[in-house]
Amino acid sequence: MQVIYDSKTDTLTIIFSDVSVSESDEDKPGIILDYDSDGNIVSLEILDASKRIVQPNKIEYELSGAK
Fold this sequence. Notes:
This protein is mostly beta strands. The chain has one domain (about 1-50). It contains 1 helix and 5 strands; from the N terminus they run E-E-E-E-E-H. The chain has one helix at about 50, and strands at about 1-5, 10-15, 25-30, 30-35, 40-45. Strands 1-2-5-4-3 form a 5-stranded antiparallel sheet. The protein is globular, with a radius of gyration of 13 Å.
């Protein structure tokens, strides 16, 4: 998984899988979901991220239930 914040375009992208995107869908205004040919989500893109997320340039990562 990869998380990218581009301050020039104010876009936050979360890439779940490194496969080709077959289809994109703007689920809600400014929220774009990318899918592979099997319909699995590949990535999530948030436009105008600084208006939607408190700190788009900061990330916290936690493994829940990990031993």
